[in-house]
Amino acid sequence: MCLHMRIDINTQIQVIDELTSTEPAFHTVIDAYGVPPLWQREEGFPTLIRIILEQQVSLASAKAAYDKLLKAAGTLSPAHFLQFDDEHLKSFGFSRQ
Predict the structure, then answer these.
(1) What angle do CA 20, 14, 53 make, to 5 degrees?
(2) Cβ–Cβ under 8 Å, residues 46 and 56
(3) Of 49, 56, 97, 42, whose CA–CA distance to 73 is shortest?
(4) Residue 76 and residue 70 in contact, taking contact as beta carbons nearer than 8 Å
(5) With contact defined as beta carbons under 8 Å apart, do 91 and 69 qualify?
(6) Over the stretch 58-90, which tens digit does the pLDDT of each residue have?
(7) Per-residue pLDDT at 10 exceeds 90
(8) Which residue, 47, 45, 91, is CA-closest to 55?
(9) Residues 6+ apart with CB under 8 A from 97
(10) How confident is the model at residue 9 (pLDDT cuts 50, 70, 90)?
(11) Residue-level pLDDT at 96
(12) How many CB atoms lie within 10 A of CB 62?
């Protein structure tokens, strides 16, 4: 499956069926928590940064850190991001990880 492909609910169900038939332990996860939500997000570097933040801290903390970064960076691109040293990133709420 192409990573850039936007999937719909039918594709998601097909993929989940394939996954659970390959590894039945995933049935337990689906039964307990349901089908994962399909979040539609813009593609690109800013979204990648936000997703990484959301995996590291609470959603509220991630949003606060992301907003501080956006305010400081203006346009968020890899080049703009690399201009910040560790101290700047910590001041926005980023952790070392």
Answers:
(1) 75
(2) no
(3) 49
(4) yes
(5) no
(6) 999 999 999 999 999 988 999 999 999 999 999
(7) no
(8) 47
(9) 56
(10) confident
(11) 74
(12) 20
Q: How far is CA 25 from CA 17, 22, 37, 63, 69, in A?
A: 12, 9, 20, 33, 39
Under DSSP, the state recorded for 39 is -
Question: Which residue from 80, 52, 78 is spatially nearest to 66, judged by alpha carbons?
Answer: 52
pLDDT at 37: 85
CA distance 68 to 83: 15
pLDDT computed for residue 5 by the predictor = 58
- The C-alpha R_g of the chain, in whole angstroms, comes to 17
Q: Is the pLDDT of residue 43 over 50?
A: yes
The CB-side HSE value for 31 (13 A sphere, CA atoms) comes to 6
